[in-house]
Amino acid sequence: MEWNWSVIVEYQELFIRGLWMTIQLTVVAVVAGLFIGLILGLMRLSDKAWLRLPAVAYVDLFRGTPLLLQILAVHFAVLPALFQDVLGLPAPDAATSSFIALSLNAGAYIAEIFRGGIQSIDKGQMEAARSLGMTYRQAMKLVVLPQAFKRMLPPLGNEFIALLKDSSLVTVIAVNDITYAAFATAKNTFVRWPPYITAALVYLVLTLVLSRLVGYMERRLDPNGRKG
Amino acid sequence: MIQVENLNKRFGDHHVLKDIHVRIGESEVVCVIGPSGSGKSTFLRCLNLLERVSSGRVVVGGFDLTDPKTDINRVRTEVGMVFQQFELFPHKNVLDNITLAPIHVRKWPKEQAEAKALALLDKVGLRSKAEAFPGELSGGQKQRVAIARALAMEPKLMLFDEPTSALDPEMVKEVLDVMKQLAEEGMTMVVVTHEMGFAREVSDRVIFMDDGRIVEEGSPSEIFSRPKHERLKAFLSKVL
């Protein structure tokens, strides 16, 4: 009974939906996290305290508390307070809460990656761009960020892989991701090994694909800057 | 072209520039010499506000840089700068390095910027390297591209911050030759340099700085053949 793999076929719809949800969670958190991270990273590098300090506080808060707690707090406290008490609307569902919590968390980590990447580019590059009359924004966009991004790829790859695996935490608020599919299948059928092994293999395949993809991008963007 | 009055620059407690007064006219070539740490580079960087000025007045091409209302980006389009470490953009090829600012700052169409860039590459003798990346060039070639990049903005004034100090000796001449040609064409130039031969031969005026002050200034023959100040004599005895 324990090794009855047919339960995976029986519950395949749950697993397929779970796979799709895990991919969606990761992609949304990566894209939103890049956006939040870029803004926060630039704010942290500002010489104006009113821009820098909120970014520091944000990064400290989201890196210094457990993601599990953040998911619970966003779903059961922050969003209900915002939507029901302030806006008078129904609170968002668990999936929406998960997208938001993961994106906010990823933003904090990616902000630090942006900051490190930008700081690793020689100050002379910014000065050369500014000396040609470019604004700070143009110099960042055209000169500093394209170079910084190449150096950020390896840590970004690590962050994306961590995010993919950490998205499993949304199972606690009953979002139907891969981990939830395994948990629910095991609970309903009393078959334990096959669902968990299946979920583990799915994560393994996804992380391998992701790390190969990042490796491919790293090779395309030669760090010496000779090509592309 | 340049008027500097009472310029002072402090980094914290460190008083780097002390009461600098200078006037530089159009088409004048001025070399700034002096020992390391004398404030030469800081002075040069104050002329396009890469360093913020602590006090005093700096007027370049009619723009008062010390007036907070002045659009510094506008001024910088008229002031080219060449750095000791070249500072080419390593992720762009030579042509893109040169056309980047004309396209994005001057808003020139791409064809116009590229035509200008190729003409400048001809001038510095590097037309064949238009498609090369900076990592594939020698130091002397990089610096000549950097000069072309600055000239592409059609500046009225060029600043050179020790342009040959990071070069192998055999590459110094190719860069100095380009600068000499530029001087002969009437470009206004301020050159911080350790190349005394260049200062003597090309400049209209030489400024000797020591310990944040202008200690002596005059024509090359006055400075090199009849130095008055003891510190200048001591400096020249070490470098000549």
UniProtKB/TrEMBL annotation, chain A:
<keyword id="KW-1133">Transmembrane helix</keyword>
<dbReference type="InterPro" id="IPR010065">
    <property type="entry name" value="AA_ABC_transptr_permease_3TM"/>
</dbReference>
<feature type="transmembrane region" description="Helical">
    <location>
        <begin position="195"/>
        <end position="217"/>
    </location>
</feature>
<comment type="similarity">
    <text>Belongs to the binding-protein-dependent transport system permease family. HisMQ subfamily.</text>
</comment>
<keyword id="KW-1003">Cell membrane</keyword>
<keyword id="KW-0813">Transport</keyword>
<keyword id="KW-0029">Amino-acid transport</keyword>
<dbReference type="InterPro" id="IPR000515">
    <property type="entry name" value="MetI-like"/>
</dbReference>
<keyword id="KW-0812">Transmembrane</keyword>
<feature type="domain" description="ABC transmembrane type-1">
    <location>
        <begin position="19"/>
        <end position="214"/>
    </location>
</feature>
<keyword id="KW-0472">Membrane</keyword>
<dbReference type="InterPro" id="IPR043429">
    <property type="entry name" value="ArtM/GltK/GlnP/TcyL/YhdX-like"/>
</dbReference>
<feature type="transmembrane region" description="Helical">
    <location>
        <begin position="64"/>
        <end position="83"/>
    </location>
</feature>
<protein>
    <submittedName>
        <fullName>Amino acid ABC transporter membrane protein (PAAT family)</fullName>
    </submittedName>
</protein>
<dbReference type="InterPro" id="IPR035906">
    <property type="entry name" value="MetI-like_sf"/>
</dbReference>
<feature type="transmembrane region" description="Helical">
    <location>
        <begin position="20"/>
        <end position="43"/>
    </location>
</feature>
<dbReference type="Pfam" id="PF00528">
    <property type="entry name" value="BPD_transp_1"/>
</dbReference>
UniProtKB/TrEMBL annotation, chain B:
<dbReference type="InterPro" id="IPR030679">
    <property type="entry name" value="ABC_ATPase_HisP-typ"/>
</dbReference>
<keyword id="KW-0067">ATP-binding</keyword>
<dbReference type="GO" id="GO:0005524">
    <property type="term" value="F:ATP binding"/>
</dbReference>
<keyword id="KW-0029">Amino-acid transport</keyword>
<dbReference type="InterPro" id="IPR017871">
    <property type="entry name" value="ABC_transporter-like_CS"/>
</dbReference>
<keyword id="KW-0547">Nucleotide-binding</keyword>
<keyword id="KW-0472">Membrane</keyword>
<comment type="similarity">
    <text>Belongs to the ABC transporter superfamily.</text>
</comment>
<dbReference type="Pfam" id="PF00005">
    <property type="entry name" value="ABC_tran"/>
</dbReference>
<keyword id="KW-1003">Cell membrane</keyword>
<feature type="domain" description="ABC transporter">
    <location>
        <begin position="2"/>
        <end position="236"/>
    </location>
</feature>
<dbReference type="InterPro" id="IPR003593">
    <property type="entry name" value="AAA+_ATPase"/>
</dbReference>
<dbReference type="InterPro" id="IPR050086">
    <property type="entry name" value="MetN_ABC_transporter-like"/>
</dbReference>
<keyword id="KW-0813">Transport</keyword>
<dbReference type="InterPro" id="IPR003439">
    <property type="entry name" value="ABC_transporter-like_ATP-bd"/>
</dbReference>
<dbReference type="InterPro" id="IPR027417">
    <property type="entry name" value="P-loop_NTPase"/>
</dbReference>
<protein>
    <submittedName>
        <fullName>Polar amino acid transport system ATP-binding protein</fullName>
    </submittedName>
</protein>
